[in-house]
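Comment thread on ticket #2218

A.B. wrote:
> Attaching the input chain for the structure job we discussed in standup.
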Amino acid sequence: MPLSDVDRLEDFPLASIEQADRMPAVQYRGQIMPLLPLADLLGEPEQKLSETDTRVGGGDETIKAIVINFNGNHAGITVREIVDVADQQGPMRMTNAPENPIRGSAVIEGKVTDVLDIGSILKKYGIDEATDIGASV
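C.D. wrote:
> Ran it. Output below, let me know if you need it in another format.
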């Protein structure tokens, strides 16, 4: 995803994950922050976010999340692994599929890399970019 969309990279203890509106969430900076599993968007096997699930994080006691910030509100996109953070300018091959979570592909640090479309991800989970996505605690 574009680095400009990223607020922070976080590890959340599995014990801190709660449910809000049938969605995993954590308390984050005075807000209820929804956790959006990237695996669901990409059609990968379901990734459970619970203390008893050892598949999350390869048996770790934490879940990794890319925290995004829209309008002062946060959402966390949960991932199995964060490989690298790179800022690179250059051409991108855009996707033509509407509402695709993949914006396009680019060569980043010598590898073809898919770039996520944050707006499509939020929309997929029923979150409008113009409205609040968290709630004050």
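A.B. wrote:
> Thanks. Noting for the ticket: The CA atoms of residues 1 and 115 lie 5 Å apart.
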